[in-house]
Structure formats: C-alpha cells, structure tokens
Amino acid sequence: KMQDDARYLKRKVTVGGLDVHPTQKALVVHYEVEASILGESGGHMLGERKEGQKIIRMKSLSPSTDVGALAKKVLEECKMIPASRLPQVEQLLYYLQNRKSSPVERKRTVKPKELTPFEGIELNEEASITRVDEYIELLYEGIPEKIRGSALILQLARNPDNLEELLHNETALGALARVLREDWKQSVDLATIIIYIFFCFSSFSQFHGVVSHYKIGALCMSVVEHELKRYDAWREELRKKNKSAPENGSLRRDQDKALRKYHGLLAKQEQLLRGRTFVDQMTELKMRNKNIVGLLVKVLERDDEELLVLVVSFLKKLSIFLENKNDMAEVDTVERLARLVPCKHEDLLNLTLRLLLNLSFDSGLRAKMVEVGLLPKLTVLLGNDNNRQMAMRILYHISMDDRFKGMFVYTDCIPQLMQMLYEHGEEEIETELISICINLAANKKNAQLMCEGDGLKMLMKRALKMKDCLLMKMIRNISQHDGQIKSLFIDYVGDLAAEIKEEEEEDWVLECLGTLANLTIPDLDWELVLKEYNLVPYLKDRLKPGSAEDDLILEVVIMIGTVSMDDACAVMLAKSGIIPALIELLNAQQEDDEFVCQIVYVFYQMVFHQATRDVIIKDTQAPAYLIDLMHDKNAEIRKVCDNTLDIIAEYDEEWGRKIQSEKFRFHNNQWLEMVESRQADESEPYLYDNDNDRTDLFYSAGTLSKDSCFTFLFFILLNWLFFFFFVTLSTRDIGDVFDQTSSSPARPVTAYGFRPDEQPFYQYS
Length: 765
Hints:
Elements: H1 2-5, E1 6-20, E2 26-39, E3 44-57, H2 67-77, H3 86-98, H4 132-138, H5 143-157, H6 160-168, H7 170-183, H8 188-202, H9 208-213, H10 216-244, H11 250-282, H12 292-299, H13 305-318, H14 322-330, H15 333-338, H16 346-359, H17 363-371, H18 374-380, H19 388-399, H20 402-405, H21 413-424, H22 431-440, H23 444-451, H24 455-466, H25 469-479, H26 484-487, H27 493-498, H28 506-517, H29 526-532, H30 536-542, H31 550-563, H32 567-575, H33 578-588, H34 593-606, H35 610-619, H36 622-628, H37 635-651, H38 653-681, H39 706-731, H40 734-741
Antiparallel strand pairs: 1-2, 2-3
C-alpha cells in the first residue's frame, strides 16, 4: 500500500563541519544525507538519516599557492559547501599550507610507511571501486585467482575513501573472511593480503566493529600459532642439515638451498605477522584467553626490526593489565627484551624501555632484570639524551629494592648521577634524578662513592643555598652510615644546626634535624652546639603532642637521644625539664612502637650519667613505665628496657627489688601456665582440690603420681635457680655492670624510610 501511495524520493544534503585531514594535505567535509519518501499529497511517509564525509585532496598546495584562489576553486568543485563557508575554507587551507610535515596527533594508529604496497604480488591493472563485484567473484575460484582478487581489493582498501563503500558491500567482507578461514593454510600470501585488508579497517576506530563481527582476531591467533610452529620446524630442520652437511658436495648445496628457502619463507611470514599484530591491537581485550602474550613473546626472538616494533608496542599496551603482566612473567619476557637493549633502532629501543618500565613495578620482574644483566646496560643509556629519562625511571624502581642497591657500585651509574647533579647548578633537579639518588644513598658503599673527592661538599653547598629538601634527604641518607662517613659531616654541624628554627619550613627542618641526629660522633661537643644555636627551647617545644607533624616530633626525640651521649649535654637537657615532656609524649604515643622505642633509648642514654640518673630515678616515674614495657611484644623495645632497668636496679635498691619482683612474677607465671598446660594435655589429676584457690597450689589431698612429683621437683629447682640468679645479680660489684655495658648498644634502628604503609617516594601515573 505504501509503495502504491509513494510518488517520489526527496534527498537533502546538509554540510556539517569542515576540518583538515590529520595526515594528508586534504580537507574533510562532514555531511548528513536525509532521504525521505513522500506521498501523493506531498506528505512525509518514510525517512532515513545518514552521516558521511568527503575528502578533498590538495595535491597542488605549496608554500607559493594563492590560498584565496584555491579556496574559490574548492567551492566550485564541491557544490555541497555553501559560499558562506569561503572564509573558513581559506583559513583551513592556510593552516595546511603552514603545517609541519609531521602532525602532532593522528587518528590513525599506524604510520604511513606501514601501508606500503604488499611485497611479492605484482598487478598490472589499477583497481576500481566500481568493479568490486568482479574481484569478489575471483574469491570463489582457485588459490591464484583468490590471491589476485584479494590483492585488488587491498588496493582499494588502502584508500580510506573506499572503506565506507567496501563496508556496505557485505558480500565482499564476508567472502574475504570465509577465504581466510578456509584457505589460510594453503597460501601465506593469500592470508597476508586478507589480513592487511582488515588491518586497513582496524586503523580507524569506527570500523573496529567490522573486525570483531567477522572474528578476525581469533582467526589471526590460529594463523600465527601455526606459523610459529612452522618456524620452529624450519629452524630444527636447518640445524640438522648444518650438523650433517660436509664442507663440499651435494649435501652442502642442498643445505645452502634450504637456507635460501628458509630466508624467503621467513620474510613472508614476518610480513604476515606484522599485519596480524596490527589487527590484534584493535581487539586486545578479547585475546588474553587465547594466549596472546605467549605468542607475542615468542615473536621477540625474530630479527625483523619493524616486526619487533609492532610486537613490543602491543606488549606495552597489554602490560598495563595485571593478568597480562603475570603472563609475561611466566614466559621469560624480560630475558628476550634484554637483547634489545641497547639497539640501533631508536623507536624499538624506546618502546622496549617503556615496556620494561611497566614491568619494573613488579618486584620479581625487577629481580629478573638484574639477573639478566640489564643494570649496566641501563646505566650506559644515561648518556643518551633520547632515552635517559626512561632508563632512569627503570633504575629508580630497581634502586627501591635493598637487594640491588649495592650492585650499583659496580657500574658507572653513581659517577654519572653525581655529574648530572653538579651540572644542574641552581636549576631545579629532575624528580627522577634526585629520587634515584635518595634511594642509592641508603647503601653504605654507594654513599662512600658519592662522598669521594668533593662530592659531599658539593651536595651540602647546593642544598644549603637552595634549601632543597630532596637533596637534603639524600644527604640525610648518607649521614646514617657508621664509620668514616660520619666524620665528614663535622665541618657542617654548625650549618645544619643554624637551619633548625621556627621560621623555616617544617619539611626543611625535618631533613636538617634528621641529618644532625644521625651524627653519633663520640668527640663532638653537643653542649656547645645546643648553646650556640639555642636549640634546647626548640627541642622542648616540639615534644608537645600536636606541636608539629609526627615525623618531626620523632626526629626531635632521636636528636635528644643522640646528644644525650654527652654528659654535660644530658645534664643540661634534664635541668630544662625535657624528661617529664618525654614521659608525657610517651603516654600520648604509647601505641606507636617507633616513638616508644626511641623515648626509651633516651632514658637509657641518660641513666649512664650520674646527674640525669638521679633525676630519672628519684624525680620521675620513668622506671615504672619501663617496668610496664619490660614484656612488650616488640623485641627492640624489650631489649632497650632490659638494659636500662639493669642499670637502674644497680643504683637504687628499692627499684631493684621491684624490678626483680616483676621479672620473677613474669617468669613464675610462665612456668605455672606451662605446668597446667602439660597436666591438661596428659589428663593428669589436678594438684589442688579447688580450681579457684591457688594458695594450696602444691598441697593436694590426693596422692601424686611419679610424673607429677617429677614436674613438681623440677619446677621448684628452676625457681630456686632463678632466685639464686637475682641474688647474685644484686650482690654483684657495680663495676661489673659497667664492664658489661660500658659501650652503649647501637641506637634502635629508626623506621625512617622503612614504614610498611609508606608509598614509594616517586611514582609514575
């Protein structure tokens, strides 16, 4: 009925936007076609809208072209562009005339040079879009005809203007997909041509649906898996012939012939893999279940640089997903990439480094990079301006691992890094450079290398002049190492102390204070330093909970522990009222093991000196807090508490008895629990009648078994031995204690730089 009523078709073309082509000297005209079927009365019966684009190439456009005249000619040739758009056309042509040859951004995902004519197929005719049906008919004949027909369609597909026409010809794409599915094993040339046709579609995002619809990605996986197996078979065959062929004779000629055939097949195969890799990149999210990573990594053994560029680029895109990264770890990806660093092909080298950077976020893969010898190779690249930043980022990740910090000393890395720091002068240091230096300075051998010559002098001079917090963090890491390194800082104690004041930035003060706190140098007159720079009021004020960030307060506590090694300095601190402030801070931070351990260490240092010992024992409740911490779950806290309480017990009889009583009580409870547990396990009768009354612990109305008697006697004997130990300890000569503890144990290791919840200093998005 509608067909009877329909009288004529109305077609309307509306021009939308005008733009320049991203890669060619051409204008792109976006338009919309509206087709309507009108009835007898002229009313609208049925309509459809369709968007399209037309590309107008400007082959004659040159720097000397008259843009105005050319714009008018464009409007004459392309009737759909209204005359009112003339100024816009002139502006776009002017832009094209002055645009550089290499565009900054392309919509296509490939470079023009990758769309070169297919090698190995010579055609004597020019393909025409109007003859597509003829080319399709060839796909239903033999292999030679199929190759010819698909090659002609490939000629058309290379022109983006023809893709839309081919897309609407469902017979063409369906036939190509069918031929690929059925005949790819019979001809590498045929498979390669068809894959390249679909590659032309996959180069534009709007055609990705076509590639997915015909399941080209899955077909490509089957093709490449088969080709890689053929490659392994070829290599094995060549290996056998090389082994058996004599120096002269027919076998040698056969071997040479086989080698030439192998290279010819290899060239065709690599061309096939290039096209297939492009297609896979468009459907990468669906490929994991088909072992795409394993197949790509196997291709890394090839020598074709253009193929390797594609494969490494694809692996880089895949590596941002955790599952793909794990797959790469299982198939020895790092070992195969190591041979590509360094290489003469700049694009390949850059892509390889970017892939290694993605993989270096995994600690196991970082270890593998060191194992295969990438560390010295990456160090060499620090001298390459094009790849320096990428190499430095990978080295930064490696330097985060304590296992590998010491290996940098056997390369030329540290001298190069120091030279880079020196060359920066007063300019801001690159984040990657200072980050890796901070990490490496945490290793003693690296720190010694950094301080060689005038290294430390250069670092201190620049840090103090620029007030560079990150550079001072590096210096702070250097200062933590014992031995000769600490003595190098004596000349800078005054400079560092002068920076500790209220008006300075807290981050800057934190690094300077941390560096000073690391300087446990016996001959250093800390009393003079504190007085000259009036540091005691600052330190005392910062002990108040909430007075500053916890990191700064903790460094203040560590600083007090360091200066308390000096007798006169400890007395000065005790008189200033710092000990009660430390106890108050201990109460506020009792859940933080780091604070507790460092505060207890301050008490340990102070009980060595007569004046401060009396203050701690008689005027404060510090011993009571130490007794409470005697059995703390943290081993480091228990160790420092025991050493401190041993000295207090020697000097004060009352506290000595309390300490002995607490140790005996804790020991006794442990034995009681052990005995009761043993009795319960062996189902022995209880040694007492009433579970809740332990006053008659060893007096039972029942008869004891032999095992119970033995346990009882053994327990009594050990308790007497324990009691004898404390009696001996209390009657020991006071000199024995100081003979044992005359050299104070090393300060507890600070958690600086090792907090488990702390993120790496420098991360990459």
